[in-house]
């Protein structure tokens, strides 16, 4: 079984730590990457195949919607 790659984008470190722990039991099925900003998420998207992106709509002065529009345009297979 091939693991699916999930990218989670949020600025809240505590929330991302909770998600990291929540995904641990599923590590054989999912590989999860975390990014605190749009810039870091774009870097991850350019280097790895990502199957699913979960993004906070409000990213400390940035817009998660902007990120999702980028994903839709440049990473249509995601």
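^ structure tokens above, recovered residues below v
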């Amino acid at each position: 079984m091939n693991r699916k790659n999930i990218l989670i984008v949020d600025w809240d470190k505590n929330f991302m730590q909770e998600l990291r722990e929540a995904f641990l039991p599923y590590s054989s099925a999912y590989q999860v990457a975390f990014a605190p900003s749009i810039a870091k998420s774009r870097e991850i998207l350019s280097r790895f195949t990502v199957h699913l992106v979960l993004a906070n709509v409000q990213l400390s002065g940035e817009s998660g919607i902007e990120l999702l529009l980028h994903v839709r345009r440049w990473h249509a297979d995601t």
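The two ends are 19 Å apart (CA to CA).
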